[in-house]
Structures are given as C-alpha cells and as structure tokens.
User: Fold these one by one.
Assistant:
Number 1:
Amino acid sequence: MYVCICQGVTERQIHEAARDGADCLRDLRRQLGVTDGCGRCAVCARACLTEGRAFRQGENASRAGSDAGGW
Ligand code: FES
C-alpha cells in the first residue's frame, strides 16, 4: 500500500527503513522523502514506523533469547 503518494513510498519501504534503524519521521524523510511534498502522509507514516520498530524490537528480543540458551 502506498503511504506517501507524493514520493511513491510504500508501507513495506517504511517497515524496512524501521528495521534498518529509522527511529523517527525525520529519519524517514531523510531516507525516503516521506512528507517532503504535501505532508498528508505524516500520520500514516508514523503508524507504519511504529509497526516496523515493534517488529524490530521483537526480532532483537527473540535473537537475544536464542543467544542466551545456546547450548
Ligand atoms: S503524500 Fe507524502 S508528502 Fe504528500
């Protein structure tokens, strides 16, 4: 699904950016150009970023858990 029509940025791209370390809307703007046009995508982009960050944190937690019991 397109989140930012002006820049042609999709939900998937935002999730990937979040997994790669984007932490705020400013990071998305710098990396993908989100909100550089009309700015109407800001709320949806922030929601997608939150989802992506949650996924990243879940991955890190499960990785730490599997590392802890590595015998
Ligand atoms: S929809 Fe993202 S800047 Fe216009």
Note: The first helix runs from residue 11 to 19.
Number 2:
Amino acid sequence: MSALAKSEWLIPAGLIAFSFVPILAGSIRLIELGSGAQITPNNARFFTAPLPIVLHIISFSIYCILGAFQFAASFRSHKPNWHRAAGWIIILCGLCAALTGLWMTLFYPTINYPPVNFDGPVLYVMRLLVGSAMALFISLGFAAILKRDIQNHRIWMMRGFALGLGASTQVFTHIPMFLFPNIQGELARTLCMGAGWTINFVAVELMISSERTRRLP
Ligand code: HEM
C-alpha cells in the first residue's frame, strides 16, 4: 500500500502488536467455548451466558485492528473513503465492546475464587466507570464528526481508543503479580487493573496536550 509512508506503518503495526495479547486471549476463549471444553469455576459464567463474551471478543478485536489504521495520518488523507467506512465499523465495534463489557460487569455473577480470581468491588466500580467513559468518548467522537469538527473527533476517538487499549497495558501492569505470587490478592489485582487504565489515560492526555501546544502560533 503505497499510500502509507514506510515510517507510518510503525503506528498501526505498533498498536496492533500492542493489542496482540488481549486478542490472543480472546481467541483462546472463543475456541474454548466453541469446543465445549471442561466447565470450571473460572469459566462457568462464560458457558452460562456466552453471547456477551463472544460479542465482546469479536468487537474488541475488530476495534483494535481496524482502529490502529485510523491513526496513520497519510492513510487518512490518501484514503478518506477507507477512513470513513472503517470508522463506521470501528464506532459500532467500540460501542459493542464497551457495552458488552458493562453488561458482563453488571450481570455475570460476582466471583472471587482465589487464586483464580481476585476481582473485588473497587474493580467493579472501575469497570463501570471505564466502560461508560469509553462508550461516551466514542459517542462524542461520532457526534463531533457529524458536525465536521475534525479536531474534537480526533481527540475523543483517541481517548476512547486509549481506554480500550487499557486491556493491553494491563498485560504489563500484571507482571509484578506473576513475578511475586505472594502479593496476589484483591488489592494487587485492583491496582494492576487500575494502573493499566490510568497509564493510558495519562499518556493520551499528554499526547493531546502536546499536540495542542504544537498547534499554538
Ligand atoms: C478494546 C477494548 C477491550 C479489550 C481489548 C478487552 C479485552 C478483554 C479480554 C481479553 C477479556 C478476557 C476474555 C476472557 O477471559 O475470555 C475481557 C473480558 C472482559 N472485559 Fe474487556 N476488553 C475491552 C473493553 C472492555 C471494557 C470497556 C470493559 C468495561 C466494562 C470491559 C469489561 C470486561 C469484562 C467485565 C470482562 C469479563 C471479565 C470476567 O468475567 O472475567 N472490557 N476483555
């Protein structure tokens, strides 16, 4: 694809590589559900109500892969029709990922089966906030583009994507829990999950504010 300068491949390629682990984890879950694997305390909720998790995995995978290309500037300017068509799919998939995430948070049974799961009430509230914020940011990005407000469209879509990619950052923020099993527990789990979202939130706000500074005369 000549439209994309070589160096610009780095942005989509980097973002796709970054989302590789959640997409892989989701694919393994889909295979598990499809192959009728053994039901255990760790996966019973997914077998009891598979639709939300299946929709979640399919939608976040498309969102992460297609969404990565939207951030390459020359791709946007050389392929505006692609950006528009992909944008519709990404908005629908992003909303689906956020809403199914909220659905699972609200309706999957609350489980706390150490050492398999340490999800507690603070993480529950965090998920409600993050899922709602992601859906809101994507909706604001959509509303902005309907008004041809490119600047705010870009900013809200970046924010939504950053929150979504919190799932990727959480792969890294969980490393201490695996390196030091003695710290495993509800507190560590909550901090590791929260750190993933916080890092991405701070990173995207820094990017947005540095872009604003560069645009100042
Ligand atoms: C692009 C965005 C997202 C990605 C890449 C992502 C990734 C994942 C992955 C890999 C899983 C594990 C699936 C499994 O264990 O089989 C998962 C499950 C889940 N996600 Fe997301 N997710 C995203 C957005 C969200 C949002 C915004 C929320 C907020 C509510 C959310 C809430 C959940 C919940 C509640 C589960 C099930 C957890 C459980 O019961 O173990 N996700 N997601």
Note: The chain has a mean pLDDT of 93.
